[in-house]
């Protein structure tokens, strides 16, 4: 199958998704959770058995928006909210006592952000250093800077898609950026590069074992994608089924963490064959026109 015949369509799809995300980021930005913006923490002990989802819905009906609810022990619950006044805290007490009768307030405090500017700066520097290391390592292994740059661009593509989509979810559904989101974003970077290297490695294998003219890099890539597509889809679907179960059944605490992983997995599965590879082929075509060469690998 000639996968690269439709590379402009692949680029158009990615461009539309990224444009929507960038528009959302510019217009609405990201909704930061307590980890980034600080907030209030309240701890209660309830006599009756209650789920986190039920507690969230009970307070939402009263106009009180919770960042998260965590069942720390069998009967103790930790509420995280934006900074609230003593009056709002008393309102929460009244709502819970009216609904669940015996309720003991164990703790109420206002906390600052746990992620400071210095930590954010160090994280960005670490990402840049690791990205450069991946770029040069992939380029060294595949004997071409094109492979390393294509892998890194696909990785950044997944990051932009995830952040942009999360901005939309934050505006319309209240999804917040917290430690779990950062964890999901870093996990997706690894998944994206790993899947891309699988395709690139098959391109290299085909080029080494084939003694016939496959039509240059484009022809080799089409064969590689045909041979790896089923493997990639099967691998991704096993992850997506698990994440879908977490989204539907995992409760409010890890719901948005699973959503972030789900978005990143879909984007990573798409970007490996339909972003990284088309970038590689397009780059090779442009470079060939500027400076024709016999082969895209060094023998």
UniProtKB/TrEMBL annotation:
GO terms for cellular component: plasma membrane. Forms a complex with SecD. Part of the essential Sec protein translocation apparatus which comprises SecA, SecYEG and auxiliary proteins SecDF. Other proteins may also be involved. Part of the Sec protein translocase complex. Interacts with the SecYEG preprotein conducting channel. SecDF uses the proton motive force (PMF) to complete protein translocation after the ATP-dependent function of SecA. Coiled coil: none annotated. Pfam families: Sec_GG, SecD_SecF_C. The keyword Cell membrane applies. This is Protein-export membrane protein SecF. Residues 93-284 form the Protein export membrane protein SecD/SecF C-terminal domain. InterPro entries: SecD/SecF_arch_bac, SecD/SecF_bac, SecD/SecF_CS, SecD_SecF_C, SecF_bac. The chain crosses the membrane at residues 9-30, 123-140, 152-173, 179-200, 239-263. Belongs to the SecD/SecF family. SecF subfamily. It comes from the Bacteria. GO terms for molecular function: protein-transporting ATPase activity. Keywords: Cell membrane, Membrane, Protein transport, Translocation, Transmembrane, Transmembrane helix, Transport. It comes from Candidatus Woesebacteria bacterium RIFCSPHIGHO2_01_FULL_40_22. GO terms for biological process: intracellular protein transmembrane transport; protein targeting; protein transport by the Sec complex. Gene3D superfamilies: Multidrug efflux transporter AcrB transmembrane domain. It is a multi-pass membrane protein. The keyword Transmembrane helix applies. It is found in: Cell membrane.
